[in-house]
Design goal:
Elements lengths: L1 E5 L4 E6 L5 E2 H8 L4 H9 L3 E3 L2 E2 L5 E2 L4 E6 L19 E4 L3 E6 L15 H9 L4 E2 L8 E7 L5 H9 L4 E9 L7 E3 L3 E3 L7 E3 L9 E9 L3 E8 L6 H8 L22 E9 L6 E5 L3 H12 L3
Parallel strand pairs: 11-18
Antiparallel strand pairs: 1-2, 2-7, 3-6, 4-5, 4-7, 8-9, 9-11, 10-11, 12-17, 12-18, 13-16, 14-15, 16-17, 18-19
Length: about 300
């Protein structure tokens, strides 16, 4: 059980410790990943309570103990954005700290300018507070996406993402056929020299990228539905890896050569799974997309 309550200056987080016995210092630093400067203020201001009592930094916290953390505005300065439209949000999971929604294709995850409305603005309106981006989906991609509802949970979720403890699975409809049951693409990805919108495989200067690809269903000789699991999160990673290996996504305006065979980019984030860091419960969220299913059925009807 966990709650967030707002005060005139800052907010307070209350949670039941879900971890095995550890010190206050270990809890804040190793489990909650609270920044060093913020930990310093928590300690000097005595803003940490265990079962309602002020404690020593080396005091032992037991599983099930109630932890109260009070934060001032100087710990996490207020950030405000333009609120969007709450009715634009298809919410899949919501608690005091994070929210998971089903992003439609054709909508940006966040705006490039402060006045530009995007999914982040709509999610913030739905939540009634400024939310924060944990990971992104391309504008043309639909599906499950995670946002932090407080600046407190954001570095914790970022840490899970960096440690590959948030599993992200995508469905992609691609050109061609596959002979193997599973492929692992490890090609480094970097910026395209001549087109700032694109990324490309760059063995010399590219960043590490790993995509696991598993064929699900073949449609004739021209198209195949595959599941892609990301272990890194490079821009356009799935699109670049599959195109580089001769299997561009159908409907891809950047990486698929030839005619446009689908009305949308055939990439959908269908599942997100991780262990909630404040409860240790497994969260597994799935999402569907009507437009993805419609385009897929059209391909089936063509006998591809």
């Amino acid at each position: 059980m966990k709650t967030v309550s707002k005060s005139k200056n800052g907010f307070t987080v209350t949670l039941q410790n879900p971890y095995k016995d550890l010190t206050v210092k270990e809890l804040l630093e190793e489990k909650l990943h609270i920044p060093r400067k913020t930990r310093h203020w928590l300690r000097t201001k005595k803003h940490v309570l265990v079962n309602g009592e002020r404690i020593n930094w080396q005091s032992l916290v037991k599983k099930g103990d109630q932890i109260d953390l009070s934060f001032d505005d100087e710990d996490y300065p207020n950030k405000t954005i333009i609120m969007g439209q709450a009715d634009q949000v298809d919410c899949l999971y919501d608690d005091d700290h994070l929210i998971i929604v089903n992003k439609p294709e054709g909508m940006k995850t966040h705006g490039n300018e402060p006045t530009e409305l995007a999914l982040l603005n709509h999610v913030s309106a739905y939540a009634g507070r400024t939310c924060y981006v944990v990971h992104r989906l391309d504008m043309e991609t639909s599906g499950v996406i995670l946002f932090a509802k407080t600046p407190f949970i954001l570095p914790i979720l970022n840490h899970l993402l960096e440690k590959r403890e948030i599993r992200r699975d995508y469905w992609a409809l691609v050109q061609g056929t596959f002979s193997a049951k599973e492929m692992i693409y490890r090609d480094p990805i970097g910026r395209h020299r001549h087109d700032r919108r694109q990324r490309t495989v760059d063995p010399k200067n590219g960043q590490r990228a790993l995509t696991r690809v598993k064929p699900l269903k073949q449609f004739g000789e021209r198209a195949c539905l595959v599941n892609c699991c990301l272990e890194t999160g490079r821009t356009h990673q799935i699109r670049v890896h599959l195109a580089h290996h001769g299997h561009p996504l159908l409907g891809d305006p950047l990486y698929a050569k030839g005619k446009k065979e689908c009305s949308r980019l055939m990439l959908h984030a269908h599942q997100l799974q991780f262990v909630h860091p404040l409860t240790q419960q497994t969260i597994c969220i799935k999402a569907t997309s009507d437009s993805f299913e419609k385009a897929l059925n059209q391909i089936k009807a063509k006998g591809q």
